[in-house]
Design a protein that fits this description.
Chain lengths: ~230, ~240
Protein backbone atom coordinates (compact mmCIF):
# COMPACT_ATOMS: atom_id res chain seq x y z
CA UNK A 1 0.00 0.00 0.00
CA UNK A 2 1.54 3.35 -0.96
CA UNK A 3 2.50 5.49 1.88
CA UNK A 4 0.25 8.55 2.20
CA UNK A 5 2.13 11.75 1.67
CA UNK A 6 2.83 13.65 4.76
CA UNK A 7 2.03 17.32 4.85
CA UNK A 8 5.57 18.34 4.05
CA UNK A 9 5.74 16.11 1.07
CA UNK A 10 2.50 17.47 -0.26
CA UNK A 11 3.81 21.02 0.10
CA UNK A 12 6.96 20.03 -1.71
CA UNK A 13 4.99 18.60 -4.59
CA UNK A 14 2.85 21.70 -4.84
CA UNK A 15 5.97 23.85 -4.98
CA UNK A 16 7.43 21.76 -7.75
CA UNK A 17 4.30 22.05 -9.82
CA UNK A 18 4.22 25.80 -9.38
CA UNK A 19 7.80 26.07 -10.55
CA UNK A 20 7.01 24.09 -13.65
CA UNK A 21 4.13 26.37 -14.42
CA UNK A 22 6.27 29.45 -13.92
CA UNK A 23 8.84 28.14 -16.33
CA UNK A 24 6.16 27.52 -18.88
CA UNK A 25 5.10 31.16 -18.81
CA UNK A 26 8.45 32.01 -20.39
CA UNK A 27 9.07 35.17 -18.50
CA UNK A 28 12.79 35.55 -18.28
CA UNK A 29 13.60 38.68 -16.36
CA UNK A 30 17.31 38.05 -16.45
CA UNK A 31 17.54 38.89 -20.12
CA UNK A 32 18.45 42.54 -20.64
CA UNK A 33 17.49 43.96 -24.01
CA UNK A 34 18.85 47.44 -23.60
CA UNK A 35 22.01 46.61 -25.53
CA UNK A 36 20.02 46.50 -28.71
CA UNK A 37 18.40 49.87 -28.17
CA UNK A 38 20.44 51.55 -30.85
CA UNK A 39 18.84 49.29 -33.40
CA UNK A 40 15.38 50.08 -32.18
CA UNK A 41 14.71 53.26 -34.06
CA UNK A 42 11.23 53.54 -32.70
CA UNK A 43 12.64 54.41 -29.33
CA UNK A 44 16.14 55.60 -30.09
CA UNK A 45 18.60 56.48 -27.40
CA UNK A 46 18.22 60.15 -26.69
CA UNK A 47 20.64 62.15 -24.69
CA UNK A 48 19.71 64.42 -21.84
CA UNK A 49 19.92 67.35 -24.22
CA UNK A 50 16.98 65.98 -26.18
CA UNK A 51 14.84 66.17 -23.09
CA UNK A 52 15.49 69.77 -22.14
CA UNK A 53 12.08 71.41 -22.25
CA UNK A 54 11.69 74.20 -24.77
CA UNK A 55 8.80 76.45 -25.61
CA UNK A 56 8.18 78.62 -28.65
CA UNK A 57 5.70 81.49 -28.42
CA UNK A 58 4.88 82.91 -31.81
CA UNK A 59 2.18 85.42 -32.56
CA UNK A 60 1.07 88.99 -32.93
CA UNK A 61 -0.11 91.84 -30.82
CA UNK A 62 -3.27 92.25 -32.87
CA UNK A 63 -4.76 95.45 -31.61
CA UNK A 64 -6.74 97.15 -28.92
CA UNK A 65 -10.22 98.42 -28.29
CA UNK A 66 -12.27 99.87 -25.52
CA UNK A 67 -10.11 102.94 -24.98
CA UNK A 68 -12.33 106.03 -25.14
CA UNK A 69 -9.78 108.04 -26.97
CA UNK A 70 -9.35 109.67 -30.30
CA UNK A 71 -5.62 110.08 -30.11
CA UNK A 72 -3.05 107.65 -31.40
CA UNK A 73 -1.96 104.87 -29.11
CA UNK A 74 1.12 102.71 -29.05
CA UNK A 75 2.19 99.89 -26.78
CA UNK A 76 5.39 98.93 -25.11
CA UNK A 77 5.43 95.24 -24.29
CA UNK A 78 7.96 93.74 -21.93
CA UNK A 79 8.52 90.00 -22.01
CA UNK A 80 9.13 88.70 -18.51
CA UNK A 81 10.09 85.16 -17.55
CA UNK A 82 11.29 83.38 -14.43
CA UNK A 83 14.87 82.82 -13.35
CA UNK A 84 15.20 79.32 -14.69
CA UNK A 85 14.09 80.20 -18.19
CA UNK A 86 16.59 81.20 -20.82
CA UNK A 87 15.98 82.86 -24.15
CA UNK A 88 17.55 80.95 -27.01
CA UNK A 89 17.15 83.60 -29.67
CA UNK A 90 17.71 87.30 -29.23
CA UNK A 91 14.42 89.04 -28.69
CA UNK A 92 13.73 92.59 -29.60
CA UNK A 93 11.91 94.83 -27.12
CA UNK A 94 8.47 95.32 -28.47
CA UNK A 95 7.32 98.84 -29.17
CA UNK A 96 4.51 99.09 -31.66
CA UNK A 97 3.80 101.82 -34.13
CA UNK A 98 1.31 104.53 -33.23
CA UNK A 99 -2.14 103.79 -34.55
CA UNK A 100 -5.16 106.05 -34.95
CA UNK A 101 -8.52 104.51 -34.08
CA UNK A 102 -11.20 103.81 -36.63
CA UNK A 103 -14.92 104.46 -36.15
CA UNK A 104 -15.41 101.50 -33.83
CA UNK A 105 -12.58 102.58 -31.63
CA UNK A 106 -10.35 99.67 -32.62
CA UNK A 107 -6.62 100.11 -33.03
CA UNK A 108 -4.53 97.88 -35.25
CA UNK A 109 -0.99 97.10 -34.13
CA UNK A 110 -0.27 93.81 -35.92
CA UNK A 111 3.09 93.58 -34.22
CA UNK A 112 4.60 90.10 -34.62
CA UNK A 113 6.67 88.55 -31.86
CA UNK A 114 8.55 85.33 -31.40
CA UNK A 115 10.20 84.02 -28.26
CA UNK A 116 12.07 80.74 -28.09
CA UNK A 117 13.04 79.70 -24.57
CA UNK A 118 14.41 76.75 -22.77
CA UNK A 119 13.01 76.06 -19.36
CA UNK A 120 14.41 74.72 -16.13
CA UNK A 121 11.32 75.11 -14.03
CA UNK A 122 7.59 75.61 -14.44
CA UNK A 123 7.81 78.55 -12.06
CA UNK A 124 7.95 81.87 -13.84
CA UNK A 125 6.01 80.99 -16.94
CA UNK A 126 6.51 83.85 -19.45
CA UNK A 127 4.29 86.91 -19.22
CA UNK A 128 3.77 90.09 -21.11
CA UNK A 129 3.74 93.37 -19.24
CA UNK A 130 2.04 95.99 -21.37
CA UNK A 131 2.24 99.74 -21.09
CA UNK A 132 -0.15 101.75 -23.23
CA UNK A 133 1.00 105.18 -24.37
CA UNK A 134 -1.02 107.94 -25.93
CA UNK A 135 0.37 110.23 -28.61
CA UNK A 136 -1.69 113.38 -29.05
CA UNK A 137 -1.81 115.92 -31.86
CA UNK A 138 0.89 118.04 -30.30
CA UNK A 139 3.34 115.15 -30.19
CA UNK A 140 3.12 114.62 -26.43
CA UNK A 141 3.55 111.07 -25.14
CA UNK A 142 1.70 109.85 -22.04
CA UNK A 143 1.45 106.47 -20.36
CA UNK A 144 -2.24 105.90 -19.89
CA UNK A 145 -2.72 102.25 -18.96
CA UNK A 146 -0.95 99.15 -17.68
CA UNK A 147 -1.72 95.45 -17.91
CA UNK A 148 -0.11 92.04 -17.69
CA UNK A 149 -0.99 88.65 -19.12
CA UNK A 150 0.52 85.19 -18.85
CA UNK A 151 1.22 83.40 -22.11
CA UNK A 152 -0.57 80.08 -22.65
CA UNK A 153 1.02 76.90 -21.36
CA UNK A 154 -0.84 74.60 -23.73
CA UNK A 155 0.31 73.79 -27.25
CA UNK A 156 -1.97 75.26 -29.86
CA UNK A 157 -3.41 78.57 -31.03
CA UNK A 158 -4.92 81.10 -28.65
CA UNK A 159 -6.54 84.51 -28.75
CA UNK A 160 -5.79 86.35 -25.58
CA UNK A 161 -7.38 89.46 -24.21
CA UNK A 162 -5.45 91.56 -21.73
CA UNK A 163 -7.45 94.08 -19.74
CA UNK A 164 -5.73 97.25 -18.63
CA UNK A 165 -6.08 99.83 -15.85
CA UNK A 166 -4.48 103.02 -14.70
CA UNK A 167 -3.96 104.43 -11.23
CA UNK A 168 -6.53 106.91 -9.98
CA UNK A 169 -5.60 110.08 -8.13
CA UNK A 170 -7.68 112.49 -6.06
CA UNK A 171 -10.27 114.90 -7.57
CA UNK A 172 -7.69 117.46 -8.53
CA UNK A 173 -5.51 114.96 -10.38
CA UNK A 174 -8.47 113.45 -12.14
CA UNK A 175 -9.87 116.72 -13.41
CA UNK A 176 -6.39 117.81 -14.47
CA UNK A 177 -6.00 114.65 -16.50
CA UNK A 178 -9.46 114.98 -18.00
CA UNK A 179 -8.88 118.49 -19.34
CA UNK A 180 -5.20 118.57 -19.99
CA UNK A 181 -4.02 115.00 -20.24
CA UNK A 182 -1.35 113.53 -18.03
CA UNK A 183 -3.16 110.92 -15.92
CA UNK A 184 -1.51 109.59 -12.76
CA UNK A 185 1.18 107.05 -13.58
CA UNK A 186 3.03 104.34 -11.77
CA UNK A 187 6.59 105.20 -10.83
CA UNK A 188 7.74 101.61 -11.16
CA UNK A 189 6.26 98.57 -12.82
CA UNK A 190 6.68 96.51 -9.65
CA UNK A 191 3.00 96.53 -8.63
CA UNK A 192 2.15 94.74 -11.87
CA UNK A 193 3.74 91.38 -11.22
CA UNK A 194 6.87 91.58 -9.17
CA UNK A 195 5.62 92.88 -5.86
CA UNK A 196 1.89 92.49 -5.63
CA UNK A 197 1.67 93.75 -2.06
CA UNK A 198 2.15 97.26 -3.39
CA UNK A 199 -1.30 97.06 -4.92
CA UNK A 200 -2.91 97.45 -1.52
CA UNK A 201 -2.20 101.14 -1.59
CA UNK A 202 -3.52 102.14 -4.98
CA UNK A 203 -6.93 102.69 -6.51
CA UNK A 204 -7.32 102.22 -10.21
CA UNK A 205 -9.60 103.10 -13.09
CA UNK A 206 -10.40 100.52 -15.74
CA UNK A 207 -9.26 100.99 -19.28
CA UNK A 208 -9.48 99.10 -22.58
CA UNK A 209 -8.47 95.63 -23.80
CA UNK A 210 -5.46 94.49 -25.77
CA UNK A 211 -5.93 91.56 -28.16
CA UNK A 212 -3.05 89.16 -28.68
CA UNK A 213 -2.87 86.09 -30.87
CA UNK A 214 -0.35 83.51 -29.69
CA UNK A 215 0.65 80.10 -31.06
CA UNK A 216 2.57 77.82 -28.73
CA UNK A 217 4.82 74.86 -29.47
CA UNK A 218 6.15 72.85 -26.51
CA UNK A 219 9.01 70.39 -26.57
CA UNK A 220 9.63 67.62 -24.07
CA UNK A 221 7.27 68.86 -21.39
CA UNK A 222 5.14 65.75 -21.71
CA UNK A 223 8.16 63.46 -21.82
CA UNK A 224 9.19 64.69 -18.42
CA UNK A 225 5.74 64.11 -17.05
CA UNK A 226 4.61 67.73 -17.01
CA UNK A 227 1.00 67.89 -18.07
CA UNK A 228 -0.40 71.16 -19.28
CA UNK A 229 -3.55 70.02 -21.11
CA UNK B 1 -14.31 18.10 -73.97
CA UNK B 2 -17.87 19.09 -74.44
CA UNK B 3 -18.54 22.63 -75.17
CA UNK B 4 -20.39 24.23 -72.31
CA UNK B 5 -23.59 25.98 -73.01
CA UNK B 6 -23.04 29.57 -73.81
CA UNK B 7 -24.11 31.92 -71.17
CA UNK B 8 -25.66 34.64 -73.26
CA UNK B 9 -25.56 37.17 -70.41
CA UNK B 10 -21.81 37.38 -70.77
CA UNK B 11 -21.93 38.44 -74.38
CA UNK B 12 -20.76 36.34 -77.29
CA UNK B 13 -17.95 33.90 -76.78
CA UNK B 14 -15.69 35.70 -79.24
CA UNK B 15 -15.73 38.89 -77.26
CA UNK B 16 -15.00 37.06 -74.11
CA UNK B 17 -12.04 35.23 -75.48
CA UNK B 18 -9.79 38.25 -75.90
CA UNK B 19 -7.14 38.68 -73.27
CA UNK B 20 -8.39 41.65 -71.43
CA UNK B 21 -5.64 44.19 -71.12
CA UNK B 22 -5.73 45.47 -67.61
CA UNK B 23 -5.74 49.21 -67.15
CA UNK B 24 -3.28 48.77 -64.30
CA UNK B 25 0.23 48.26 -65.58
CA UNK B 26 1.30 46.34 -62.48
CA UNK B 27 -1.22 43.65 -63.23
CA UNK B 28 0.27 42.92 -66.62
CA UNK B 29 2.07 39.84 -65.44
CA UNK B 30 -0.28 38.95 -62.66
CA UNK B 31 -0.44 35.36 -63.69
CA UNK B 32 3.27 34.99 -63.16
CA UNK B 33 3.66 34.43 -59.41
CA UNK B 34 7.29 35.59 -59.39
CA UNK B 35 6.39 38.97 -60.88
CA UNK B 36 3.68 39.55 -58.35
CA UNK B 37 5.79 38.95 -55.30
CA UNK B 38 8.40 41.42 -56.51
CA UNK B 39 6.00 44.29 -56.35
CA UNK B 40 7.33 47.02 -54.14
CA UNK B 41 4.12 47.39 -52.15
CA UNK B 42 4.68 43.95 -50.71
CA UNK B 43 8.05 44.75 -49.09
CA UNK B 44 8.10 44.87 -45.32
CA UNK B 45 7.93 48.42 -44.04
CA UNK B 46 7.79 50.08 -40.62
CA UNK B 47 7.05 53.78 -40.99
CA UNK B 48 7.85 54.56 -37.38
CA UNK B 49 11.32 53.12 -37.67
CA UNK B 50 12.47 55.17 -40.63
CA UNK B 51 15.40 57.43 -39.83
CA UNK B 52 14.68 61.11 -40.24
CA UNK B 53 16.74 64.21 -40.57
CA UNK B 54 14.35 67.07 -41.28
CA UNK B 55 10.85 67.89 -40.35
CA UNK B 56 8.49 69.18 -42.98
CA UNK B 57 5.78 71.80 -42.81
CA UNK B 58 3.23 72.00 -45.60
CA UNK B 59 1.29 75.26 -45.76
CA UNK B 60 -1.54 75.53 -48.22
CA UNK B 61 -4.63 77.63 -48.30
CA UNK B 62 -6.09 80.66 -49.93
CA UNK B 63 -6.56 84.35 -49.40
CA UNK B 64 -10.32 84.32 -49.49
CA UNK B 65 -11.80 87.79 -49.32
CA UNK B 66 -11.50 91.10 -47.61
CA UNK B 67 -13.37 94.22 -46.61
CA UNK B 68 -12.03 97.71 -46.95
CA UNK B 69 -14.08 100.65 -45.85
CA UNK B 70 -14.16 102.85 -48.87
CA UNK B 71 -11.49 101.50 -51.16
CA UNK B 72 -12.15 99.33 -54.15
CA UNK B 73 -10.06 97.54 -56.75
CA UNK B 74 -7.45 96.08 -54.43
CA UNK B 75 -4.90 93.39 -55.33
CA UNK B 76 -3.18 91.39 -52.63
CA UNK B 77 0.49 90.46 -52.78
CA UNK B 78 1.91 87.99 -50.30
CA UNK B 79 5.47 87.22 -49.22
CA UNK B 80 6.47 84.41 -46.89
CA UNK B 81 9.22 85.46 -44.47
CA UNK B 82 11.06 82.84 -42.45
CA UNK B 83 14.40 82.13 -40.78
CA UNK B 84 17.57 80.96 -42.49
CA UNK B 85 17.23 77.39 -41.39
CA UNK B 86 13.96 76.87 -43.24
CA UNK B 87 14.46 75.57 -46.74
CA UNK B 88 11.81 75.87 -49.40
CA UNK B 89 11.10 72.42 -50.78
CA UNK B 90 8.27 73.22 -53.14
CA UNK B 91 6.04 76.10 -54.00
CA UNK B 92 6.26 79.81 -54.58
CA UNK B 93 7.03 82.15 -51.76
CA UNK B 94 5.51 85.22 -53.31
CA UNK B 95 2.46 85.86 -55.38
CA UNK B 96 0.28 88.68 -56.65
CA UNK B 97 -3.45 88.30 -56.97
CA UNK B 98 -5.87 89.86 -59.39
CA UNK B 99 -7.48 93.25 -58.73
CA UNK B 100 -10.79 92.60 -57.05
CA UNK B 101 -13.79 94.87 -57.09
CA UNK B 102 -16.88 94.77 -54.92
CA UNK B 103 -20.14 93.48 -56.10
CA UNK B 104 -22.76 96.07 -57.04
CA UNK B 105 -24.86 95.43 -53.97
CA UNK B 106 -24.42 96.70 -50.46
CA UNK B 107 -21.80 94.17 -49.41
CA UNK B 108 -18.32 95.58 -48.99
CA UNK B 109 -16.67 92.24 -49.58
CA UNK B 110 -13.92 91.91 -52.19
CA UNK B 111 -13.22 88.33 -53.24
CA UNK B 112 -9.81 87.14 -54.47
CA UNK B 113 -9.90 83.41 -53.70
CA UNK B 114 -6.14 83.33 -54.29
CA UNK B 115 -4.52 79.97 -53.42
CA UNK B 116 -0.98 79.32 -52.23
CA UNK B 117 0.95 76.19 -51.39
CA UNK B 118 4.48 75.86 -50.04
CA UNK B 119 6.43 73.11 -48.33
CA UNK B 120 9.30 73.89 -45.98
CA UNK B 121 11.85 71.68 -44.32
CA UNK B 122 13.88 72.59 -41.27
CA UNK B 123 15.54 71.26 -38.16
CA UNK B 124 14.47 73.88 -35.67
CA UNK B 125 11.19 75.65 -35.00
CA UNK B 126 12.60 79.09 -34.37
CA UNK B 127 11.84 81.88 -36.83
CA UNK B 128 8.55 80.29 -37.72
CA UNK B 129 7.27 81.41 -41.13
CA UNK B 130 5.01 84.42 -41.49
CA UNK B 131 2.98 85.63 -44.40
CA UNK B 132 3.31 89.36 -45.05
CA UNK B 133 0.44 90.86 -47.00
CA UNK B 134 0.39 93.99 -49.11
CA UNK B 135 -2.78 95.55 -50.49
CA UNK B 136 -2.29 97.68 -53.56
CA UNK B 137 -4.60 99.56 -55.81
CA UNK B 138 -4.35 101.68 -58.92
CA UNK B 139 -4.35 105.43 -58.47
CA UNK B 140 -6.02 108.01 -60.67
CA UNK B 141 -3.29 107.67 -63.29
CA UNK B 142 -3.27 103.89 -63.36
CA UNK B 143 -0.09 103.42 -61.34
CA UNK B 144 0.13 100.54 -58.92
CA UNK B 145 0.50 101.86 -55.37
CA UNK B 146 0.94 99.74 -52.24
CA UNK B 147 -1.20 101.15 -49.48
CA UNK B 148 -1.99 98.46 -46.92
CA UNK B 149 0.31 96.22 -44.93
CA UNK B 150 -0.26 93.35 -42.58
CA UNK B 151 1.13 90.03 -41.52
CA UNK B 152 0.09 86.78 -39.96
CA UNK B 153 2.07 83.83 -38.64
CA UNK B 154 1.53 80.46 -40.23
CA UNK B 155 -0.49 78.48 -37.66
CA UNK B 156 1.55 76.01 -35.66
CA UNK B 157 -1.13 73.38 -35.14
CA UNK B 158 -1.86 70.99 -38.01
CA UNK B 159 -5.26 71.07 -39.60
CA UNK B 160 -7.57 73.68 -40.98
CA UNK B 161 -7.57 77.24 -39.65
CA UNK B 162 -9.23 80.51 -40.58
CA UNK B 163 -7.45 83.70 -39.73
CA UNK B 164 -8.74 87.25 -39.96
CA UNK B 165 -5.91 89.67 -40.54
CA UNK B 166 -6.26 93.38 -39.99
CA UNK B 167 -4.24 95.53 -42.34
CA UNK B 168 -2.97 98.98 -41.53
CA UNK B 169 -1.93 101.90 -43.70
CA UNK B 170 0.82 104.33 -42.87
CA UNK B 171 -0.25 107.91 -42.31
CA UNK B 172 1.79 110.85 -43.48
CA UNK B 173 2.43 113.30 -40.74
CA UNK B 174 1.49 116.42 -42.62
CA UNK B 175 -1.33 117.40 -44.93
CA UNK B 176 1.05 118.75 -47.51
CA UNK B 177 2.93 115.49 -47.58
CA UNK B 178 -0.30 113.69 -48.15
CA UNK B 179 -1.20 115.89 -51.10
CA UNK B 180 2.20 115.50 -52.66
CA UNK B 181 2.01 111.78 -52.23
CA UNK B 182 -1.34 111.67 -53.94
CA UNK B 183 -0.10 113.63 -56.93
CA UNK B 184 3.08 111.65 -57.34
CA UNK B 185 1.42 108.29 -56.81
CA UNK B 186 3.75 107.65 -53.93
CA UNK B 187 1.95 107.84 -50.63
CA UNK B 188 3.65 106.96 -47.36
CA UNK B 189 5.13 103.48 -47.74
CA UNK B 190 7.73 101.39 -46.01
CA UNK B 191 11.30 100.87 -47.14
CA UNK B 192 12.61 97.34 -46.66
CA UNK B 193 9.04 96.23 -46.47
CA UNK B 194 8.98 92.50 -45.72
CA UNK B 195 11.41 92.65 -42.82
CA UNK B 196 9.92 95.77 -41.34
CA UNK B 197 6.48 94.26 -41.25
CA UNK B 198 7.55 90.79 -40.25
CA UNK B 199 10.08 91.65 -37.58
CA UNK B 200 8.45 94.73 -36.16
CA UNK B 201 11.72 96.52 -35.49
CA UNK B 202 11.99 100.07 -36.62
CA UNK B 203 8.26 100.61 -36.77
CA UNK B 204 8.16 102.53 -33.52
CA UNK B 205 8.41 105.89 -35.19
CA UNK B 206 5.71 105.33 -37.77
CA UNK B 207 2.06 106.30 -37.53
CA UNK B 208 -0.70 104.22 -39.01
CA UNK B 209 -4.42 103.88 -39.18
CA UNK B 210 -6.58 100.87 -39.57
CA UNK B 211 -6.98 99.62 -43.15
CA UNK B 212 -9.08 96.58 -43.80
CA UNK B 213 -9.84 93.03 -42.75
CA UNK B 214 -8.76 89.99 -44.77
CA UNK B 215 -9.88 86.40 -44.31
CA UNK B 216 -7.25 83.71 -44.96
CA UNK B 217 -7.82 79.97 -44.72
CA UNK B 218 -4.85 77.76 -43.89
CA UNK B 219 -4.34 74.03 -44.09
CA UNK B 220 -1.25 72.87 -42.25
CA UNK B 221 0.40 69.46 -42.67
CA UNK B 222 3.35 68.43 -40.55
CA UNK B 223 5.76 65.54 -40.75
CA UNK B 224 8.32 64.41 -38.18
CA UNK B 225 7.75 67.26 -35.76
CA UNK B 226 6.70 64.78 -33.09
CA UNK B 227 9.86 62.77 -33.63
CA UNK B 228 11.88 65.84 -32.77
CA UNK B 229 9.88 66.10 -29.57
CA UNK B 230 7.82 69.16 -30.53
CA UNK B 231 4.21 69.14 -29.51
CA UNK B 232 2.01 71.39 -31.56
CA UNK B 233 -1.51 70.51 -30.49
CA UNK B 234 -2.95 69.69 -27.13
CA UNK B 235 -5.24 66.95 -28.43
CA UNK B 236 -4.38 63.39 -27.46
CA UNK B 237 -3.43 60.99 -30.22
Amino acid sequence: MPRLDSKEERDHKIKEELEELNNKLEIDLSRDDSENDHLNLERPIRTKADYKPEALFVGQILGADGFDNEDALFLEVIFKHGDHWKLLALPSPIQTHSCYPDEDGTYVFAHPFEFYLTSGSIHGWPKFIIKVYRLDDFGKIDAIAYGSITLPNEAGTFELECSTWRPMGNCIDESYSFFLGGPPKLTTLNPLTRDLTLRENISTVSSGNIHIQCDVILKSFEDLGIKTS
Amino acid sequence: MERLEEDLSLGTSEEYKDDEKSIFSEDANIDNPHEYSKHENLQTYEPKRQPHSFFYLGVSGQIDSGEFNNRDGIAIKYDIVKGNRWKLVKGEETGISQHGFRNQGASKRIVWNFPFEVIYSSTNVKEWPQIVLYGSGKDFRGREVIEFYGSVHVPTAPGRHTRYVRLFQPVTSSIFGKFLGWIKGNPASYKDAPNLIAKGEGREVTRVQSGGLIKITFQITQRNLEKYGYKTTSSDD
